[in-house]
Design brief:
2 domains; alpha/beta; 4-stranded parallel β-sheet; about 250 residues; 9 helices; Rossmann fold; 6 strands
Length: about 250
């Protein structure tokens, strides 16, 4: 058994012991959950709109099975620079509340819940196999200082730990401060992030299959720009995994 696997096993045993001593509660409603269950009770988990196999394999949108952009209204005619994308659930209801509490309410513990959902869909899509590097969409230094953390970075760390592959936090960096994408339309979003990212060490990216992590994907403009930068730096492939799809 490798060192990473041994460490994961120790952490799993320790977590189970803590669950026995201090029975966990649902992080959404506060109700009881079974020992060894994820951090959501079955009722709250059932309320999530999970994205199953009925999703575009290119952009992750739940609009039907599509191998590419043809036939998908969300990415038809557009240029997405990543190879594929997957999202755990729709960005609505409880999923939206959990992400907002994690991101702006500083409830870091919710990252475990979100990452578990992300790992589930990634495994169903076969994304764990062959991934060399897991990295987050970076925040600008100013935004990171204001928030105190990068939510995508925490999710990326948890996903990488589950996959047993390297997590790199500061290889892809945001070199320009941009307007919030939520303020902009589709075309303006593409222009807003153009030139906003850079790769620090191209030799570490060259030939690698990268899994790019973020909390929410809407049009995919930010993730596509990150993927373009990584591909120019020599990445063999860039795939995308997010907690929710708008």
């Amino acid at each position: 058994m490798g060192l990473i696997s041994s460490m994961q096993r120790v952490k799993e045993v320790a977590r189970c012991l803590l669950d026995l001593l201090y029975p966990p509660h649902c992080l959404a409603c506060g109700g009881d959950v079974d020992v060894g269950e994820a951090t959501l009770c079955s009722g709250c988990r059932d309320s999530l709109t999970l994205i199953d196999g009925n999703a575009c394999r290119k952009c992750g949108s739940p609009v039907g099975e599509h191998g590419g952009t043809e036939g998908c209204p969300n990415c038809r005619g557009g240029r997405l620079n990543f190879s594929s994308a997957a999202a755990a659930c729709r960005y609505e209801g409880l999923a939206r509340d959990l992400i907002l509490q994690f991101k702006y309410g500083r409830r870091i513990g919710l990252s475990r819940t979100l990452a578990t959902l992300m790992v589930d869909v990634a495994c169903r899509r076969g994304m764990a196999e062959g991934t060399d590097l897991v990295m987050p969409v970076p925040l600008h230094q100013k935004k990171r200082r204001e928030r105190g953390f990068n939510q995508a970075g925490i999710l990326a760390e948890r996903v990488a730990e589950s996959f047993g592959c390297p997590h790199v936090e500061n290889l892809l960096v945001r070199v320009a401060e941009t307007r919030a994408q939520t303020e902009l339309g589709r075309d303006s979003r593409v222009a807003n992030v153009k030139g906003a990212f850079a790769v620090r060490e191209k030799t570490r990216v060259a030939g690698a299959r990268v899994l790019l992590i973020d909390d929410v994907m809407t049009t995919g403009s930010t993730l596509s720009e990150c993927a373009a930068v990584l591909r120019r730096a020599g990445a063999a492939e860039v795939n995308v995994l997010v907690a929710a799809r708008d």
